[in-house]
Backbone:
């Protein structure tokens, strides 16, 4: 019996040491399990707030830029849009919003931050009603309700993990077998799509936005790695001296540049009301897959939590589609610019607004105008 007591004491000591070691590995020290989950929830909440604020700033910036374009189109002396102070204010707000989004990846899982991009869509729809005096539609109300409900489910059932991303951990993730298989498949699919795009001149919206989504997965992985290492360095454990930090930074910048290139191509060929919802679905799906494969964010999650999280994503997708579908292009309040003061032109001639041009319009020839009148 005495030996049994000693064995029990030894087992208790080993169990306590293992618990303390596990907490220290996760950056908790001697805190209790409840304190650990409490701190994790606070950190994740900070990431959510950063993402929501960043996307809301982006929605404001889009409306400011659109308002600046409308003002320039109605002026007698046409100037390039980049000379407008109001337009630059919108660009600065967009930069702040994207910075907030990038910082959010350092505090919360990528599978949670990426779907919160729906905030910019719903925010832009409602701000345009107040700021640009656009009409509030029933579809906007329905889409907003679906999106808010989906966002609530996303935040509630997202994986409750906060990783301290060190350079060593990022290197281990890069050489994991699941990521190697994932990146090989991505490269093969991207090369096939690029072949059809370049050689066969296939510019279907699915082809373009699939390439954007494949690049976006690399962007999400690299942004979270860079933000995580910067956050960990701010706590006093420098990670910026490791080569992997600069490798991930280069991947982040390069993937962003080509992502914007293909997205702009899609915006030139297709209506924004088609591009925005499809791109949101593709981007979010790609980001979730990247978070699951690379950062293993749903490891050990309950099946019900996974199902409710995916259901929240579905509601957000539906909300974005409802808001953007059948939204007509807004017309300028002044549909033309009088050319009465231009030498050699009759006062009935007009400059038709063209938002794709720096001068916002072209002059009609007098013969064309006469034939049009007849």
Residues:
């Amino acid at each position: 019996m005495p030996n049994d007591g000693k064995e029990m004491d030894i087992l208790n000591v080993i169990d306590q040491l293992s618990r303390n070691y596990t907490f220290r590995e996760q950056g908790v020290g001697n805190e209790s399990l409840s304190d650990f989950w409490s701190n994790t929830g606070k950190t994740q909440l900070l990431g959510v707030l950063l993402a929501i604020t960043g996307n809301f700033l982006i929605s404001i910036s889009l409306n400011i830029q659109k308002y600046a374009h409308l003002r320039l189109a109605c002026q007698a002396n046409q100037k390039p849009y980049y000379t407008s102070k109001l337009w630059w204010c919108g660009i600065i707000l967009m930069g702040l919003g994207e910075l907030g989004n990038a910082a959010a990846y350092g505090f919360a899982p990528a599978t949670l931050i990426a779907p919160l991009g729906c905030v910019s869509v719903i925010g832009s729809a409602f701000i345009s009603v107040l700021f640009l005096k656009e009409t509030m539609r029933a579809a906007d109300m329905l889409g907003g309700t679906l999106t808010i409900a989906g966002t609530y489910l996303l935040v509630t059932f997202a994986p409750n993990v906060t990783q301290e991303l060190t350079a060593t951990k990022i290197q281990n993730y890069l050489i994991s077998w699941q990521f190697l298989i994932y990146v090989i498949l991505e490269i093969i699919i991207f090369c096939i799509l690029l072949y059809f795009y370049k050689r066969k001149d296939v510019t279907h919206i699915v082809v373009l936005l699939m390439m954007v989504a494949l690049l976006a997965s690399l962007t999400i992985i690299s942004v979270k790695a860079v933000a995580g290492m910067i956050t960990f360095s701010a706590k006093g454990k420098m990670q910026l001296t490791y080569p992997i930090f600069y490798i991930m930074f280069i991947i982040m910048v390069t993937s962003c540049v080509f992502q914007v290139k293909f997205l702009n191509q899609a915006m030139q060929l297709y209506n924004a009301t088609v591009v925005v919802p499809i791109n949101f679905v593709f981007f979010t799906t790609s980001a979730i897959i990247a978070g699951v494969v690379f950062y293993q964010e749903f490891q050990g999650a309950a099946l019900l939590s996974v199902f409710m999280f995916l259901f929240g994503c579905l509601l957000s997708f539906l909300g974005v589609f409802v808001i953007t579908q059948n939204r007509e292009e807004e017309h300028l309040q002044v549909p033309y610019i009088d050319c009465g003061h231009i030498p050699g032109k009759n006062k009935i001639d007009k400059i038709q607004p063209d938002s794709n041009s720096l001068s916002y319009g072209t002059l009609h020839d007098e013969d064309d105008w006469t034939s049009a009148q007849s």
